[in-house]
Amino acid sequence: ARARVSELEHELATQRTELASALRQLPVEVSFRVTDGQLVATFENHSTRAIDVVVEPRRARTGEYGRIELTLPEQGTATVGERQGWSFRSGDTLTVLSGDYRPVSLAVP
Predict the structure, then answer these.
(1) Cys-Cys link to 87, which of 32, 62, 82, 99 (CB 3.0-4.6 A)?
(2) Residue 36: which region, alpha, beta or left (left: phi > 0; alpha: psi -120 to 50)?
(3) How far apart are CA 21 and CA 53, in angstroms?
(4) DSSP helix/strand/coil, 62
(5) CA-to-CA distance for 49 and 105, rounded, in angstroms?
(6) Considering just the CA atoms, what is the radius of gyration of the chain in Å?
(7) The pTM is what?
(8) Could you tell me the sign of the dihedral formed by the alpha carbons of 87, 38, 53, 15, in that order?
(9) What's the pLDDT tens digit per position in 48-90?
(10) How far apart, in Å, are the Cα atoms of 99 and each of 24, 31, 52, 73?
(11) Number of CB atoms found within 10 A of residue 57's CB
């Protein structure tokens, strides 16, 4: 039974990898800046249509994590910071998810 579970886990991991490589690149650029002494993430949509994204910040050191839903206007921007529910710190990780797009993951500088 353990061998079969291991085999199925491997198959699932392979399928996830194949699916991720088949997805399109998310047309969103993420940058960070300091505003009023707080680190804020800016999400710039390079698409000609609005995009709904889920932002998942994580602080590995403490195990804290968040989930913030945003709608990025076409060719527009949105920000996430303390007012939106997350105070970024250097070393945090950030994942941006959106429908049929490949997830974007990065570390906060």
Answers:
(1) 82
(2) left
(3) 19
(4) coil
(5) 22
(6) 16
(7) 0.77
(8) negative
(9) 999 999 999 999 889 999 999 999 999 999 999 998 989 999 9
(10) 10, 21, 8, 16
(11) 22
